[in-house]
Write a structure and sequence with these properties.
The complex is a heterodimer of chains A (356) and B (278). Chain A is of the alpha/beta class and 356 residues long. Chain A folds into 2 domains: 5-139 and 268-320, D-Maltodextrin-Binding Protein, domain 2 (3-Layer(aba) Sandwich); 141-266 and 323-355, Periplasmic binding protein-like II (D-Maltodextrin-Binding Protein, domain 2). Helix content of chain A is 42%, strand content 16%. Chain A is built from 13 helices and 11 strands. In chain A, the strands form 2 sheets. In chain A, strands 3, 4, 5, 6, 7, 8, 9, 10 and 11 form a 9-stranded mixed sheet that branches. A two-stranded parallel sheet of chain A has the order 1-2. Chain A is globular and about 60 Å long. The model of chain A is unreliable at 1-40 (pLDDT under 50). Chain B has a domain at 34-91 and 144-277: MetI-like (MetI-like fold). Chain B has 12 helices and no strands. Chain B has helices spanning 7-37, 45-52, 54-86, 90-105, 108-119, 124-133, 145-169, 173-181, 186-214, 218-223, 231-241, 245-277. In chain B, helix 3 (54-86) packs across helix 7, helix 7 packs across helix 9 and helix 9 (186-214) packs antiparallel against helix 12. The longest helix of chain B is centred in the N-terminal third of the chain and has 33 residues, at 54-86. Chain B starts with 6 loop residues before the first helix and ends with a helix. The chains are: A alpha/beta (356), B mainly alpha (278). The interface between A and B is large, with 57 and 65 residues.
Chain lengths: 356, 278
């Protein structure tokens, strides 16, 4: 009996421990995993998001760059900041260029992961949205209010954030993201703050405005695909989502549309990690991505807007039509630098606000 | 047989497992522990935040509540299934066992999406309810705690059914027969013989389900409402979003401590039970 008992004990503990360790070390697991990706010769590797984004990157940037400079580019999907940090911290950097969204790039910048941008190679003068010393904004993607046009024809759906907040005129189940950024901007715009006076955000006012919409939000959405699928499965009526999600869904035959009257635009960034073996070539790649003709070629393929002056003029009228007019005050650009200083604190407050 | 093995043989047999656990479990765990107290110098900042933060307290409360609820639901449903399966001849049991294992082999992400279709406002269950009642009945089962508990129960069931079934199948049938001959009714046989003898299986199932649900991540994120955040979601947030590994490791260690405590209590209860019935 005693023997039997202790076996149970041990079995229970070790099994529990293994499972627990899986959770505890979820991110840190990368520590133990050797990354077999080695830059081949003088080639560089660039992180990527897969799917249509990857094929557009390949067509507009990676392949033309290789042809022009003779430096082959390997695209690495599913890269995340945790693994990037491990690479830089251990001095074994296998990704030469990190392509990511604002919060990740800013968190990396705070941790000192990025090398300063070499302005003798990279021309940052033509950037529409000026960015930091160790990263550049490449192109932006638009977020806005999506709905089912069959259920909510023109006039029946909100087109601006003020209308999204107007629960009397536009009753319906809302879906918003479960993060502070974008939501607080929408709340302030809905509350009547002029777009050019948005930053620095009046956080208390924003949270007060968030209180008004809280009861109408059915789901605080964790994953981006859900911002469209919950709409098409009729679990929510109005969703904050992205043009790069809505248009492909439309092409696939779903009844979904996005109001372009007021949009929040977020930049995608490139950064070069410190300690890389090909920093020179990495900088050349970044410079290449900021060329107006390359930007135009990219934005022709996917639903992004260029961040370089002169690029828009090179884009076909057809592609330009689906893009937000970045000169309009209603195409608001998210200030990632501001968020970089405030994200942790505000996301925490936001999460607490959600739990109450 | 087991008693005749020498200490040396036991040590040799256990060495590979111990080595594996040391390298792939204890060392990484040690690094997490180290990260929770060391960030360019020793710090207790992470633990201080865990102790003082209302956010973490609330989320810990959620985690315990949801885990216990999901484990209890799995226990009730799992016990019924296990009893049904244990009563079958082995040959007939096989296909049913495959059905029990099915959710085990399906991606948890896919299952969570599928639950949206089943439990949603315009989901299958609500359509059926509406059809039966002529549109009067409607149940909110998605994006709230019920959704999380249902989704987790679906995931946990095999972990509950299998150990309980094993302990039911292995029971000595002559005990039941003896009780019946002595005039005990079905309920009495169950409450005095079947159930007590299945307790090791129940404890194993409960242990596994509690452990698994404490670390659950995708299900609460996809099926839960705003008040159903769990600790694993918070750990992920600090690990990947803000790169605050000190805080993330501290939360992970607190979660580890709390689950260890719960499990120690359960093992204690189980041991008392066994001495009572031995």
């Amino acid at each position: 009996m005693k023997n039997h008992d202790s076996r149970w004990h041990n079995g229970g503990v070790s099994r529990r421990s293994i499972l627990k360790a899986g959770v505890a070390t979820a991110g840190l697991a990368a520590l133990g995993v050797a990354l077999p990706l080695r830059a081949q010769g003088r080639g560089i590797s660039v992180t990527c998001w897969g799917g249509a984004y990857e094929s557009a990157i390949r067509q507009a940037f990676a392949e033309p760059f290789a042809k022009e400079t003779g430096v082959p580019v390997t695209l690495v999907n599913n890269a995340d900041l945790t693994r990037m940090k491990v690479q830089v911290d251990s001095g074994n950097v296998s990704w030469d260029v990190f392509d990511s969204i604002g919060p990740q790039i800013m968190a990396g910048a705070r941790q000192g992961l990025w090398a300063p941008i070499d302005t003798s190679i990279v021309d940052t003068g033509k950037l529409m949205q000026k960015t930091g010393k160790d990263h550049v904004g490449t192109y932006s993607y638009a977020g806005g209010i999506a709905f089912d046009p069959k259920k909510f024809p023109d006039g029946k759906h909100p087109t601006t954030f003020a209308e999204l907040w107007d629960l009397k005129r536009f009753p319906g189940r809302r879906g918003l993201r479960s993060r502070a950024s974008e939501n607080l901007e929408m709340a302030l715009l809905a509350d009547g703050v002029p777009p050019d006076q948005l930053y620095p955000l009046d956080v208390d006012r924003a949270f007060k405005a968030m209180d008004r919409i809280k009861p109408a939000v059915r789901k605080w959405i964790e994953t981006t695909p859900e911002t469209v699928t919950l709409l098409t499965s009729n679990e929510i009526d109005f969703s904050y989502t992205y043009l790069s999600r809505v248009l492909p869904a439309q092409r696939a035959g779903s009844s979904v549309a996005m109001s372009m009257r007021q949009t929040l635009n977020s930049l995608e960034y490139l950064a070069v990690p410190k300690g890389g073996k090909n920093i020179q070539n990495a900088m050349r790649y970044v410079a290449f991505c900021l060329r107006a003709d390359r930007q135009a070629a990219f934005c022709e393929l996917v639903e992004f807007s260029p961040n370089v002056t002169g690029a828009t003029d090179l884009i076909s009228a057809e592609a330009r039509q689906r893009m937000p007019d970045m000169n309009s005050p209603d195409a608001i650009v998210i200030d990632d630098a501001w968020w970089g200083d405030n994200y942790d604190k505000l996301q925490r407050r936001f999460t607490e606000w959600l739990l109450i | 047989m087991a008693h005749s093995m020498s200490t040396r043989t036991v040590m040799v047999l256990l060495a590979p497992l111990c080595l594996l656990l040391l390298v792939f479990f204890l060392l990484p765990l040690g690094r997490v522990g180290w990260a929770s107290i060391y960030d360019h110098g020793y710090t207790l900042r992470g633990y201080a935040e865990v102790v003082s933060g209302t956010l973490i307290h609330r989320v810990l409360g959620n985690t315990l509540h949801i885990s216990v609820l999901a484990t209890l639901t799995s226990l009730v449903l799992g016990y019924l299934i296990a009893m049904h399966l244990a009563g079958m001849p082995p040959r007939r049991r096989a296909p049913y066992l495959v059905m029990v294992m099915l959710p085990f082999w399906t991606s948890i992400l896919v299952k969570s999406y599928a639950f949206t279709i089943v439990l949603g406002n315009s989901g299958l269950v609500n359509q059926l309810l509406g059809w039966v009642s002529g549109g009067a009945w409607h149940a909110e089962m998605l994006f709230n705690r019920m959704g999380v508990v249902l989704g987790m129960t679906n995931y946990l069931l095999p972990f509950m059914v299998l150990p309980i079934m094993a302990s039911l199948v292995n029971q000595n049938r002559s005990l039941h027969l003896a009780a019946e001959i002595m005039g005990a009714g079905q309920w009495r046989i169950f409450s005095r013989i079947t159930f007590p003898l299945s307790l090791p299986g129940v404890c194993a199932g409960v242990l596994m389900c509690l452990t698994l649900s404490m670390g659950m991540y995708i299900t609460p994120a996809l099926l839960g409402g705003r008040q159903d955040m769990m600790l694993a979601n918070l750990i992920d947030f600090y690990t990947r979003q803000t790169l605050d590994w000190t805080l993330a490791s501290s939360i992970a260690f607190v979660l580890l401590g709390v689950s260890a405590l719960l499990i120690a209590m359960l093992i204690r209860v189980q041991r008392d039970q066994e001495t009572t019935f031995a």
